[in-house]
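Input chain follows. Return structure tokens only.
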Amino acid sequence: MFKVFVSYSTHDLKNVTELQQSLAGTGVDVFVAEHSVAASETLSEKISSAIAGCDLFVLLWSANAKSSDWVSQEIGKAHSLGKTILPLLLDEGLTLPGFISGLKYIPVFANPQAAMAQAQDLVLKQFQAKQAALRQKEQEESRNLLVLGGLVLWLFSQK
């Protein structure tokens, strides 16, 4: 399974929902705290765990996100864990913060539909790449088992 963590301000939930809906039915698991954390669960633990387990960290960067303590901490955690970060810039004129300031971003403000389509395409390409890598690993493990089995048979035949 390919896991995407979405970091955002709750003020930008409309954009988050659009992104989540665009990935529905693709096999991609999208973590959105608003929908993925149940009442009574510890928010910080669920978020930390979801970031640690994600394949891709998607940042919806806006003036709202810039003023959110949660978003800045999520960015820091994703960066420190070496996660691939895909920034979607919602507001024109903003720059990405600190350690991720050099990342190429998708300018959602310029053409929201095209930007969401581009983001969906990038997520799906990474998902497909992970699936291909897993298939290759499984094939290599199968070959190794066959070689090992052949070696065991050869050793028994030497008695």
